[in-house]
Amino acid sequence: MRAPARLLLHAAATEQPPPPAPVVDSDMVVILASFLCALVCVLGLALVSRCAYCRLHSSSSGDNNNEQLPPKAKGLKKKVIDALPTVAFAAPPCSASASECAICLAEFAEGDALRVLPRCAHAFHAACVDAWLRTRATCPSCRATILESRREPAGACGRCGGQQQVAAAGAGDGHTTFLP
Questions:
Q1: Predicted local distance difference test score (pLDDT) of residue 172
Q2: CA-to-CA distance for 132 and 101, rounded, in angstroms?
Q3: What are the Cα distances from residue 177, in Å, to 9, 20, 167?
Q4: pTM check: above 0.85
Q5: pLDDT on residue 5
Q6: N or C: which end of the chain has fewer CB within 10 A?
Q7: Are residues 114 and 89 in contact, defined by beta-carbon separation less than 8 angstroms?
Q8: Contacts of 116 (CB under 8 A, 6+ apart)
């Protein structure tokens, strides 16, 4: 028993103490942190200036090409909306034509009041398209502007350019009938 204890004491005495930890100068830490912050600020300013430069040149290039985007369409006034033609729906003899409102997706019923847009001749429930036209001045289907332009004839579809038929069958009650 004495021998193992002597070995432990001898081994403990021969071990060398660990070297002291390096001393960190607090001034050096402050200087390095300042340089790091300055680097981040310079990189951020460089990115912001690059973005501003690209944006400036991209907007001025449109002026050089004389390409101007049309102004964003706003909604129509109630007086203009009320002036749009309203017709009563009559079921067509064949079921191949469009017989649902593209806004509410409900089927047109016999006698429903439909509003026909003058430029593209698309028809919608009057209440649905009135709400749409208060916020936008375009057709919900083809995005054609509601007011007629002099370049395209009335009744031309904005998407395909074809003529859509709107026939008036006088019923004597002041309403016309929509026949697709």
A1: 42
A2: 12
A3: 114, 100, 7
A4: no
A5: 66
A6: N
A7: yes
A8: 84, 85, 86, 87, 122, 123, 166, 178
Average pLDDT over residues 145-166: 57
Alpha-carbon distance 125 to 87, whole Å?
10
Give the number of other CB atoms < 10 A from CB of residue 134.
14
Local structure of 140: helix, strand or coil: coil
Q: Is 178 helix (H, G, I), strand (E, B) or coil?
A: strand
Q: Which residues contact 115 (CB under 8 A, 6 or more apart)?
A: 84, 85, 86, 87, 123, 124, 125, 126, 129, 130
DSSP letters, 14-68, are: HSPPPPPPPPPPHHHHHHHHHHHHHHHHHHHHHHHHHHHHHHHHHHHHHHHTT--
- Name the range with the highest mean pLDDT among 15-24, 107-116, 150-159: 107-116
Other C-beta atoms lying within 10 Å of the C-beta of residue 146: 20
Which residues, 6+ apart, have CB-to-CB distance to 159 below 8 Å?
Answer: 120, 141, 142
